[in-house]
Prior knowledge:
- The complex is a heterodimer of chains A (398) and B (301).
- Chain A has 398 residues and is mainly alpha-helical.
- Chain A folds into two domains: 12-49 and 170-391, no CATH class; 55-154, D-Maltodextrin-Binding Protein, domain 2, CATH 3.40.190.10.
- Chain A has helices at 5-25, 27-53, 66-80, 92-101, 121-142, 147-154, 168-205, 208-213, 218-250, 258-286, 295-317, 322-327, 333-343, 349-377, 387-391; strands at residues 56-62, 83-87, 106-109, 113-114.
- A four-stranded mixed sheet of chain A has the order 2-1-3-4, with helices on both faces.
- In chain A, α3 links the parallel β1 (56-62) and β2.
- In chain A, α3 crosses α5 (121-142).
- Chain A starts with a helix and ends in a 7-residue tail after the last helix.
- Chain B is of the alpha/beta class.
- Chain B folds into two domains: 2-214, Rossmann fold; 224-295, Alpha-Beta Plaits (2-Layer Sandwich).
- In chain B, β9 (198-203) and β10 form a beta hairpin.
- The longest helix of chain B is centred in the middle third of the chain and has 16 residues, at 162-177.
- Chain A binds chain B through residues 1-4, 7, 11, 14-15, 18, 21-22, 202-203, 206-217, 379, 381, 395-397, and chain B through 45, 48-52, 66-68, 70-71, 73, 75-77, 79-86, 90, 94-95, 97-100, 142-143.
Amino acid sequence: MSTGGSTFWSAVRLVARREFTERIRDRGFQISVGVMLAILLASVAIPAAIGGGSNKYDVAFLGPQQTQLAQTAQRQATLLDVDVRVGSVADRAAAERALSDGKLDAVVDNGRILVDSKLADPLAAVLQSSWATVERDVRLGAAGIDPSAVNQASAIAPMPRTTLDPNADQRDARKGIAFIGTLVLYGMLMLFCMWVASGVVEEKSSRIVEILLATVPARALLTGKILGIGLLGLLQMLVTAVVGLAAASALGTIELTGAMVYPVALVLLWFVVGYAIYACMFAAAAARVSRQEDLQNVITPMTSLLIASFLAAVFLGQKGGTLAHVLAYVPPFSAMLQPAMTAADEVSVPENLAAFAVALLALVGLVRLAARMYEGAVLRMGGKVGFKESLGKSARKR
Amino acid sequence: MLELAGLDKRFGEKVVLDDLSLTVQPGQMFGFVGTNGAGKTTTMRIALGVLAPDAGEIHWHGAAVDRGVRRRWGYMPEERGLYPKMRIRDQLVYLAELHGMTRARAHESTERWLDRLQVAGGPADRLETLSLGNQQRVQLAAALVHEPELLVLDEPFSGLDPVGVDVMAGVLRERTAAGASVVFSSHQLELVESLCDAVGIINNGRMHAVGTVAELRGDDRAVRYRVRLAQAPTGWADELPGLKVLSAQDDTVLVELLAGTSEQALLDAARAAGRVLAFAPATPSLAELFREVVNGTEVGA
Lengths: 398, 301
């Protein structure tokens, strides 16, 4: 039987459009987008909030030499590259209140540092050296020596430093991105593949599949469904990536450079390939059952595989090692290991490309296998269709 | 014109269709009757390309059927099915487009059929919120929305209330009047008898009889009369010449006139035997013909 190419693809387009518009209207989808963005923003904002508090200090001074101390402290802070803001408090009681409220990090009162619970090392250095300088000037004055001459002699620029691993910070940021990326990738693959699977069962359990297959080839239905849901997934991934990077760069957690964007782009790329691979497997498995209740039963191998590759990416990917390097080429593990390992500098761009090619080859084979299983099983109602049975003589003409 | 020729289908060891053939003319309403499991649904699925036959051919207007042809057909499967959570208008537009209509025509046709079939509820309602009867109407609209040249309906009347049956029958008549062919299966034989131009009786995967109801009765079938007498002796007709008594129950006998016997002679004999309460030719109904085929016995025997 002939199937015009244009008919096939126009059917695919119609099926894909239905999947896309029906899902985007779905309340469950809208909520999942919201939850995903909320988790992402939290994972970007929380480290920024914690990290941001650590090198900005509010201090105040009491006692006879408070003005000199404040000036000296500010000078020292600049030299030591510590961000210190000097505030003012009326008296000891007010100071203690401000400390316990967290408005001040430290108060210097008459040669004593007051803190609420603990004193950060950079702030301690600034305060101690300021105290030493002011005290020394007082003693030099008492001994009849001009403090400004001594000051001049001791105005020595701090030693410059050479960082042997200047990219360590950036690498940590990239590892962070890779971890969040892997998490998002895992969540999205699971979500969208489950949609493909439950969509297949929905058509089978509502029996509309019989009407559809009287009009369009089974492969067009399968292709359209995977493409429509996949496009929606890609769109959500893009939004997630843009929002995530924009928020992280706005909060100063990362600087938007090529090295930061590349792992994100890789996550998007591997989402496409990983989704295609998993969606085929989920769809073929789902076609074997006629009721949503039976779905979990047949897709457990696929969900286990997905969970295993997520764990591999998190626990093996960033550390490297032989197993990780082997798995990084094995689809579908490669989908989650490659972005994580790239961010950790474990694999290079040529290795990305090689793994990508292997995944594409596997995909071509898998698409055929999945289409055949889907065609063989989708019209058989009732109990679970056996794996071999679905692969057997295809029940329908193409 | 739809022609199914020599269809064979087995599921494993079980023969489901055995050399089944049938023809449906344009503008013809074809009724398909048979017991459960006789092969009606399988035949329809094969015609629609949902199943592939093991042997046999399907022709439409003399040419082999492909998907392009089938896109101009409409199908209502026995197991009703649409997307439960999809809005009914979107659903119908989608199906119309899948059958090759443009978006604009699909919208127009959807509105027309929702209106024609008096589907209660707004077009933006989800299918699952409608009553079962209304869901049935939407299901019929789904088969009709692309103005098919051939309608294949598997048990379209099952589960319909009397008003629904009338709406369905009216719509099917309208389609055949417009030149479309309609094939439907049903267990409601009186309905098939009153609606259909042609009937096929299928049993165990074989087409046992096909033709108009009149043809199925058979022009050459022996003439039968049912006579009801009051105050007549038992067995009054047993010895009459030129006829055979097929059955006698209470005051009614069913006789078959042998060739050359006049029904007037029978009437005279009856009047002589007692007071005639009823005297009528006994034409077998479709239901009787059907039982005859299924049980392999003669009507009234």
